[in-house]
């Protein structure tokens, strides 16, 4: 009787507050939902009614204060509560799962405005390495099987060719083990492996000013440090996989976003306007549109950014090296690091970080002049500090150090450039203070931009994909709105905890190695040499970066 009294009390309060008529509409909605819930979870009908109305009373101020269509919102609140009750009770799960789709469809109808615009449950803006990955992940997520996803790509996307071209692309990624785990989950790893990848078995980091070095090996015998894969191959494999296995995902190429309107609450949907004038409504906008993200601008969130006044010069190198060319090299020079990423037995990919002005000069050199200057920068000992090297020798005699520091290992010798493969891109730092907003979320470079010296930029974006896919799946499984900040904040917190330490470390290392001052060179060289001999700590660091979360 207490439950019935509570139910009646709440209902009359609702009628008084919103001037709802005490007629069959109100009674039918509450009674039908309560009776259905009670039948499914085997609870007394009055208990369910009480829970439902308590839920509505709790959420009315936040969700209905400025809503015109109160009947629809009352129904919407009942459905929300109904879903929460049956999920909490975990009774008759199979029947519940079948009914959830219908309930959430009703929920969607309550949230959307009456309009002629197209509607998708989620819109991914940006179809690059990260945007294609999240679209593919959502399309394969069984918990999101009822969600229609639209992927908007401003350019053109092509399928992965049956056989690779003779020349490599100058834009490649060092794909870490955690990202390889994602690729396997999405079903693209085997085709990429059969297409063209290069396994990296070791990473060597050397200092231009001393003989200090850092060597990373895989933590497990059969594991890898990374795989070097061409960016266009990854995008092509993801695009093919979406077409093959994701019937709920639609891909539109040549579609540019003109404007994004994000509502202040879940009472409304987000609206995307394209350059063509077409408007599309959605419950969730996923911004994967790069460092100059229009979606981030629409979110109006705080964004910390600065320019390194550096550029990365990329090219494909023809090299000579003993062995299999399975070592990635990075030499820290004053202007910035120079990295060689192996592509094949005789080819490596170059990322040469230098000042923006010097990058333009390097691009203007002839191929032979460019190769000569590159070899000189990688092999010269002009900046070696004898005092620091003597200190390193003394350090090698301490019990902590198990072996002496010998001559600096030598990277491959560059013979020539493959084709006309030189290009450059600007470098900078950027980080959004929050990755989420009502009905919007940022991933990849739209949320964070970091220095490429550790090769972690796109790997951070793929880590975002893994977290967001899991969070959205749980929201859908709980019957919640996937655009709700309540769930998106979980993604925001977990992603930032992972990304910020990596980004700050990359920024700190870049600044630390941009000086030849003797005291700084001494400290960084001694620290690098000591750390290189602490194998357990190195293995732990590599395993943390390699493990999917």
Automatic annotation (TrEMBL):
InterPro entries: FAD-bd, FAD/NAD-bd_sf, MCP_dom_sf, MCP_transmembrane, Ubi_Hdrlase_CS, UbiH/COQ6, UbiH/COQ6_monooxygenase, UbQ_mOase_COQ6. Its main location: membrane. It catalyses: a 4-hydroxy-3-(all-trans-polyprenyl)benzoate + 2 reduced [2Fe-2S]-[ferredoxin] + O2 + 2 H(+) = a 3,4-dihydroxy-5-(all-trans-polyprenyl)benzoate + 2 oxidized [2Fe-2S]-[ferredoxin] + H2O; a 2-methoxy-6-(all-trans-polyprenyl)phenol + 2 reduced [2Fe-2S]-[ferredoxin] + O2 + 2 H(+) = a 2-methoxy-6-(all-trans-polyprenyl)benzene-1,4-diol + 2 oxidized [2Fe-2S]-[ferredoxin] + H2O. It is a multi-pass membrane protein; Peripheral membrane protein. Its cofactor is FAD. Its EC number is 1.14.15.45, 1.14.15.46. FAD-dependent monooxygenase required for two non-consecutive steps during ubiquinone biosynthesis. Required for the C5-ring hydroxylation during ubiquinone biosynthesis by catalyzing the hydroxylation of 4-hydroxy-3-(all-trans-polyprenyl)benzoic acid to 3,4-dihydroxy-5-(all-trans-polyprenyl)benzoic acid. Also acts downstream of coq4, for the C1-hydroxylation during ubiquinone biosynthesis by catalyzing the hydroxylation of 2-methoxy-6-(all-trans-polyprenyl)phenol to 2-methoxy-6-(all-trans-polyprenyl)benzene-1,4-diol. This is Ubiquinone biosynthesis monooxygenase COQ6, mitochondrial. It comes from Ancylostoma ceylanicum. The gene is Acey_s0002.g552.
């Amino acid at each position: 009787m207490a439950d019935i009294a509570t139910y009646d009390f709440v209902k009359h309060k609702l009628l008084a507050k919103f001037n709802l008529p005490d007629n069959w509409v109100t009674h039918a909605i509450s009674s039908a939902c309560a009776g259905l819930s009670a039948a499914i979870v085997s609870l007394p009908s009055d208990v369910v009614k009480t829970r439902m109305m308590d839920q509505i009373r709790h959420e009315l101020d936040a969700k209905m204060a400025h809503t015109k269509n109160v009947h629809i919102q009352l129904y919407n609140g009942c459905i929300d509560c109904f879903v929460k009750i049956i999920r909490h009770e975990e009774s008759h799960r199979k029947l519940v799962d079948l009914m959830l789709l219908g309930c959430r469809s009703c929920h969607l109808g309550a949230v959307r405005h009456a309009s002629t615009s197209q509607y998708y449950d989620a819109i991914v803006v940006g179809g690059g390495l990260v945007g294609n990955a999240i679209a593919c992940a959502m399309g394969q997520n069984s918990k999101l099987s009822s969600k229609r996803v639209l992927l908007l790509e401003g350019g053109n996307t092509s399928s992965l060719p049956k056989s690779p071209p003779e020349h490599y692309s100058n834009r490649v990624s060092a794909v870490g083990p955690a990202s390889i785990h994602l690729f396997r989950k999405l079903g693209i790893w085997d085709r990429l492996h059969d297409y063209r990848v290069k396994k990296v078995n070791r990473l060597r980091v050397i200092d231009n000013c001393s003989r200090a070095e850092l060597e990373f090996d895989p933590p497990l015998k059969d594991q890898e440090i990374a795989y070097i894969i061409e960016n266009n191959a990854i995008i092509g494999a993801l695009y093919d996989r979406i077409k093959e296995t994701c019937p709920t995902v639609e891909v539109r190429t040549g579609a540019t976003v003109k404007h994004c309107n994000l509502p202040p609450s879940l009472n409304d949907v987000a609206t995307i306007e394209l350059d063509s004038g077409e408007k599309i409504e959605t419950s969730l906008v996923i911004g994967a549109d790069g460092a100059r993200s229009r979606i981030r601008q629409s979110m109006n969130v705080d964004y910390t950014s600065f320019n390194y006044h550096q550029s990365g010069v990329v090219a494909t190198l023809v090299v000579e090296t003993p062995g299999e060319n399975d070592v990635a090299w990075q030499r820290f020079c004053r202007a910035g690091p120079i990295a060689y990423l192996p592509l094949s037995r005789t080819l490596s990919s170059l990322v040469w970080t230098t000042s923006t002005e010097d990058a333009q000069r390097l691009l203007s050199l002839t191929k032979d002049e460019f190769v000569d200057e590159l070899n000189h920068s990688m092999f010269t000992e002009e900046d070696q500090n004898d005092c620091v090297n003597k200190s390193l020798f003394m350090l090698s005699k301490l019990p902590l150090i198990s072996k002496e520091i010998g001559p600096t290992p030598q990277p491959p010798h560059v013979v020539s450039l493959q084709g006309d493969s030189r290009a450059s891109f600007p470098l900078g730092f950027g980080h959004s203070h929050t990755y989420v907003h009502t009905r919007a979320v940022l991933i990849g470079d739209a949320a964070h931009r970091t220095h490429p010296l550790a090769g972690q930029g796109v790997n951070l974006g793929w880590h975002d994909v893994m977290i967001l896919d899991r969070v959205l799946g749980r929201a859908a499984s709980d019957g919640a709105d996937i655009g709700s900040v309540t769930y998106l904040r979980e993604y925001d917190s977990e992603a930032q905890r992972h990304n910020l330490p990596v980004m700050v470390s990359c920024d700190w290392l870049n600044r630390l190695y941009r000086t030849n001052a003797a005291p700084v060179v001494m400290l960084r060289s001694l620290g690098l040499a000591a750390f290189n001999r602490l194998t357990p700590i190195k293995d732990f660091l590599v395993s943390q970066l390699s493990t999917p979360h």
